[in-house]
Amino acid sequence: MNDPSTRFRWVLLLASLVTIVYLVAAALRENFLAEWYTVQKEYRQLLQSKATDEQGRALARDFRIELKQVSVPRLKAVDRCVSCHNGIDDPRMTDVRQPHAVHPGDILKNHPADRYGCTVCHQGQGVATSFRDAKADDAYWDYPLLPRELTQASCLACHDIEKLPPQQVALVLEGKKLFDEKSCASCHKLGGRGGTLGLALDNEGAKTRHQLIMVNFTPPYTTWRWHQAHFRDPGGVVAGSQMKNPTVTDREALALTAFMISLRQRDVPESYLAPDKIEQKARALHPQPLSGERLYRNYCFACHGDGTYGRWDTTFRRFIPAVRGPSLLATADPAYLEAQIAQGRPGTQMPAWDARAGGLQPDEVKALVAYLGGGRGTLRSAKDDNAPVLARGDANRGAALFIQNCAGCHGVAGHGGVAPELANPTFQQAASDAFIVTTIRNGRRGTAMPSFQPRVPGARSLSDPEIADLLAFIRALGPAARKPQTALVPNDLVKSGGSR
């Protein structure tokens, strides 16, 4: 009589046999055919070939093939890298191939693996037992293994870069220098100082690939590949990016990337910090003021260039003022420039730079203004603004003149154009009537702002009464606290054109 369950018992037996075969194969692979096992067998042969004295023979005799790891609870690290990198502290292994070679340099002299582990400097998946998994650049792991040339970026977690041997952190130093030269802090904050157009970079090195746009990449997806490509072509990596192309070479992009990777706020126990790092943290609480020239280079150059001429910015699609131009410096007083720097221009790309925003101290703002005055012009004094007797213009007539002559650049209502915004509250509060009138009369040499009283016969010109009307309208654009029904102009306008 046929038993209907016989078929199922045979299937169950076959499945059990297949399972046992897989388990045996997995056990053999894990313990005798694993990558680390093969590597250690090779290393044991190397030890035997280099055993030229009693100590060497003892090392070869006592070497055991087993899974090895370093556990550093204070750094939250469990690293099995030493299962394959067995010769990292053996000076005899200088002429052998990886992974058996001795660690380059004398890093391990002050950073022994049993105290620091490996991933604190190299990143990667420390618990892995194969190189592919340890590298982790194609796995779900936040911090894959750093390329050799970028490993130096990890030194800044425990050291002050200025105190390290330059050859040890050459690439990071080059990137830091480029960061200053390219005026990256014009848009990005670092250490509480810098612009606000871009993201703060204090913890940029801690970002994972999941926080970056990788649509234009092919594997492996790593943060350093993203940074390198982004420095070469910001708009090509992030569509619609307003970051100016820094125009760097491949080498410079790599150096900037190394600097970005080094910006990582790690919670490293104090016992691991070098004394110079503790001193650096203390200095950061009370930064020394920078010179005006250094401030300009770090925070202004990216947008204003050398500042002696106005220019059209293709990224922001607006004119950038000539902040060191002779016309401005001959017209503006220090208080006006200090206000523009400290308070910025709300609604434009010009951020505030005072201590609460850009991080500059009052003395640094003054130093920056003094540096501007050292250009091709000479800063005028507020005492030069002598206009005690004033005549009134008409804002209604000024509105028509503004539409005809000014709105094309400054916007219909004094904002939204490609030129500086005249309705801006910072401008309205800081600019004197004489400053505005002089600018309309004489224009700004080296910029797109023309003179409206040119010394050319037959050229389009505004009379002094018309300028008075324009001033009245410009003042009417300002905040309510500064909005008079009519505005004032110097008395000499009455003498030259009459009062209305």
Features:
500 residues; mainly alpha; Cytochrome Bc1 Complex, Chain D, domain 2; two-stranded antiparallel ribbon; two-stranded antiparallel sheet; 6 strands; elongated; disordered C terminus
Please explain how this structure is put together:
The protein contains 23 helices and 6 strands. It is mostly helical. The chain has 4 domains: 98 residues, no CATH class; 116 residues, Cytochrome Bc1 Complex, Chain D, domain 2, CATH 1.10.760; 93 residues, Orthogonal Bundle (Cytochrome Bc1 Complex, Chain D, domain 2), CATH 1.10.760; 108 residues, Cytochrome Bc1 Complex, Chain D, domain 2, CATH 1.10.760. The longest helix is centred in the N-terminal third of the chain and has 26 residues. It is elongated and about 110 Å long.
List the helices and strands and how they pair.
Elements: H1 6-31, H2 35-49, H3 54-62, E1 70-72, E2 77-79, H4 107-110, H5 113-116, H6 119-122, H7 131-135, H8 170-181, H9 223-232, H10 234-237, H11 250-262, H12 275-285, H13 292-299, H14 301-304, E3 311-313, E4 318-320, H15 326-331, H16 334-343, H17 362-373, E5 390-392, H18 395-405, H19 407-410, H20 425-430, H21 433-442, H22 464-476, E6 488-490, H23 492-497
Antiparallel strand pairs: 1-2, 3-4, 5-6
What's this, in brief?
The chain has 500 residues and is mostly helical. It has helices at residues 6-31, 35-49, 54-62, 107-110, 113-116, 119-122, 131-135, 170-181, 223-232, 234-237, 250-262, 275-285, 292-299, 301-304, 326-331, 334-343, 362-373, 395-405, 407-410, 425-430, 433-442, 464-476, 492-497; strands spanning 70-72, 77-79, 311-313, 318-320, 390-392, 488-490.
